[in-house]
Amino acid sequence: MNEDYGLTDNTEKHQYEFHIEGLVPRIEYIKTNNGEIYLTHTEVPYALERRGVGSQLVKKALQDIEKQNLRLIPLCPFVAKYIQRNPEWKKMVMKEHYIEQPQA
């Protein structure tokens, strides 16, 4: 199922969200006053797993972060793995915060 979900930036709760079937997959973040955003935690409700929801959420959050011209620090392992698999996003990551994973 590859639906296109609308991204909500819930600034009150400090998270990017989708609203799907009454559920709220989200990426929690911390924004600093000097133009940095830390993506700290991604959560996709069990009922929505294996439908590409998490990847689409990360992609749309990254697009929004790029549009705002923020510097990205991906603390969430899911986000970091997404960026490794989609290297076009590496340009947004603050260099000292990008961790290359050894190739197996």
Give a structural overview.
By secondary structure, the chain is α+β, with helices and mostly antiparallel strands. The chain has one domain: Aminopeptidase (3-Layer(aba) Sandwich), CATH 3.40.630. It is 23% helix and 23% strand. It has two helices and five strands, in the order E-E-E-E-H-E-H. It has a five-stranded mixed β-sheet. A hairpin with an 8-residue loop joins strand 2 and strand 3. It is globular. The chain starts with 7 loop residues before the first strand and ends in a 19-residue tail after the last helix. The model has no long low-confidence stretch (mean pLDDT 91).
Helix-strand blueprint:
Elements (H helix, E strand, L loop, with lengths): L7 E3 L4 E3 L8 E6 L4 E8 L9 H15 L3 E4 L2 H9 L19
Parallel strand pairs: 4-5
Antiparallel strand pairs: 1-2, 2-3, 3-4
Spatial arrangement of strands, main beta sheet: 1-2-3-4-5
- Could you spell the SSE succession in H and E letters? EEEEHEH
- What is the CATH superfamily label? Gcn5-related N-acetyltransferase (GNAT)
CATH topology: Aminopeptidase
Question: What is the terminal-to-terminal distance?
Answer: 30 Å
Number of E strands: 5
- The chain-level mean pLDDT equals 91
Mind telling me the C-alpha Rg? Answer: 13 Å
Structural class per helix/strand content? alpha+beta
